[in-house]
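Re: beginner question about structure tokens

> Can someone show what the tokenized structure looks like for a real chain? I only ever see the sequence side.

Sure, here's an example I had lying around. Input first:
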Amino acid sequence: MSAQSHPAPRGQLIAAFAAVYLVWGSTYLAIRVAVHSIPPFFMAATRFAVSGALLYGFLWFTKRIRPTAKQWRDNAIVGLFLMLGGNGLVCWAEQTVPSGIATLLVSAGPFAVVLLDWAIHAADPTKKRGSRPTFPIWIGLALGFAGLALLVGPDIAHGTGGLNFLNVGALLAATWLWSAGSLYGRYASEPAEPFTASAIQMIAGSGWLFLASLLAGEPFQLSTAMFTPHAVGAWAYLTLVGSLVGFTAFVWLMKHSTPAKVYTYTYVNPIVAVFLGWLILHEPVNSRTFTAAAVIIAGVATITIAKVKKPAAKA
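And the corresponding structure tokens:
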């Protein structure tokens, strides 16, 4: 199903974009609070297990959904990329990386989407999937990568700000894996209804995250002292609001809009996250942070505004 063949009502699009813009901007703060004491992969696994089960149960009782085996398989793959690769690595990195900086690094999502969508187009013999970037989009990519270098380069070089090659690399890898999973779900040969897909991805993703948690030895480190009121409150917010509202809205938008439009949430998320991190956690913000944020957002804006070059139809 494409956005063009089944246009969604304008009101639903506005509500979904608002949820992705504002809710996801606040989840980076909640993740930072939760993983301060709860092991990251275990926290994410339990979050998605609960939210996925709640959503799937609701859909089963109201719509009697019966996903096919192929839909389970395809969305389990998406869950691997999005939940473990995307969210899991963000949770792991935010043990040391400030929430505002993490958001700015993850805001590189549109750059990954453009390059991956181009790779899909190049590999498709029919040239019906994906698209080629135009010159303005290359300018946007250059701006984005320059902004990322300005944001994290000095701190990595001097070992300051809680940043190093490992946690920055994890956040950038999370961005690419999330983008790859999103595009895979968009081009799946037998896509599920968006809310069903969301539930399956969260349930399957929680399984991948539980496996990562086990391999990291997290279950053997658990203690009641880890579950502080702040950590549990942040976990509940992530489960009920971040997952059920934010993630479901994202999956729905990926089916009813275009990747470039959906990823405009990266304009707003960094602003919300940096402000909340500064206000609540007193995370440091300086002129370099603002400059880097402006350059990154300018790159994202350039990519979004630019028209994607479509190949000419063959005679």
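Each token stands for a local structural state, so reading them left to right follows the chain. Residues 1-5, 308-315 have pLDDT under 50 and may be disordered.
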